[in-house]
Design goal:
Strand order of the largest sheet: 1-11-10-7-6-4-5-3-2
CATH superfamily: Alpha/Beta hydrolase fold, catalytic domain
Helix content: 25-40%
CATH class: Alpha Beta
Number of helices: 10
Largest sheet: 9 strands, mixed
Number of strands: 11
Radius of gyration: 18 Å
Distance between the termini: 29 Å
């Protein structure tokens, strides 16, 4: 059930800001262990980001309006398989992107994963679309989308996007959820003896989801190395060690996101899982103050990984919203 209610970080704080971004927003929202189904994309391409290239799955007709799908930190583009296919069926071209440092996209040569770098990548991809696309971003992908819109607005360029969908993320991120994600990601850096062990770790992190018996779907998100162990397929530098400056940098990044949110003047919707430990009622209230025109969709029986927890309800809500702003062909 769903109810509706009405220049980047300075170099000296870059590394700690990147750590805040990772620890506050990253985990794999497609960590279900369901094998691949009919959500296979039409093609997988390479697209130019800011100084590197990104992998992207394409669904739907190239002539249709574009919906860009950006996953959360620690995820891959496969997190959006169901949504990508649903948008294509609704008459859109959907582009699901591996963010830098994740899966098949390039890893930052200098290990720089500051939020602005992700925003710069999204700007480059969005500008290749014939018309301003819809931006749908989960967690890290949503924060990067907000910053991309603000960066573009400050430059005086033409509109970057037609609308914005934030998936269980806002400038205010609750500490308890952030710490839980941080601990999960750091534990996973040690790798797993088997896919079953990885599936057990996911089930422990996300206990309200049933653990499927077949863990083969995790092959999309893990790679087996020479030591025989399975590791999440993202750059280890993406998760920095906490340090004394991190709490201060977290505050700095939040201030930057607040400033970015105030510049958002396109139709915006926040989709929140009612069970989320990342986006609280206070997070929603603060977002509404920053973006008064934002629509809020609360999805019952869903947590932070709302798109995976209630995929059918999520898809219906987002397609309806995008359709009102950017009608399909």
């Amino acid at each position: 059930m769903m109810s509706n209610t009405n220049e980047a970080a300075a170099n000296e704080r870059r590394d700690s800001a990147a750590g805040m971004t990772a620890n506050a927003t990253c985990h794999d929202g497609d960590m279900s262990t369901t094998p691949a189904t009919e959500t296979t994309p039409r093609e997988t391409i390479r697209v130019a980001g800011s100084g590197l290239t990104l992998a992207a799955d394409i669904y739907g007709d190239d002539e249709a309006p574009t919906v860009m799908l950006m996953h959360g930190g620690g995820q891959t583009r496969h997190a959006w398989g169901g949504a990508g296919a649903a948008f294509a069926n609704a008459g859109y071209r959907s582009v699901s992107i591996d963010l830098r440092g994740h899966s098949d996209s390039d890893w930052s040569p200098d290990g720089d994963y500051a939020l602005q770098r992700y925003a710069d990548d999204l700007i480059e991809v969005a500008k290749t679309c014939p018309r301003p696309p819809a931006l749908v971003g989960a967690s890290l992908g949503g924060l990067a989308s907000m910053l991309a819109l603000a960066t573009n607005a400050r430059s005086g360029s033409t509109p970057l996007a037609s609308c914005l969908v934030l998936v269980d993320v806002a400038p205010r991120i609750e500490t308890a959820g952030r710490v839980k994600i941080q601990e999960f990601m750091r534990a996973g850096m040690r790798g797993f003896d088997s896919l079953d062990e990885a599936a057990d770790a996911v089930a422990l992190y996300n206990p309200h989801r049933p653990r499927p018996k077949d863990p083969s779907g995790l092959r999309k998100n893990l790679r087996q190395r020479g030591d025989g162990r399975w590791y999440w397929h993202w750059d280890p530098r993406f998760v920095s060690e906490r340090n004394e400056a991190e709490e201060q940098s977290s505050s700095i990044v939040r201030t930057e996101l607040n400033d970015a949110a105030r510049l958002i003047d396109i139709p915006t919707m926040l989709v929140r899982g009612r069970m989320s430990d990342i986006v609280s009622d206070e997070s929603v209230s603060e977002l509404k103050q920053l973006v008064p025109h934002a629509e809020i969709a609360d999805v019952a029986d869903a947590g932070h990984m709302v798109a995976g927890d209630r995929n059918d309800i999520f898809n219906a809500a987002v397609i309806d919203f995008v359709g009102r702003v950017m009608p399909a062909n």
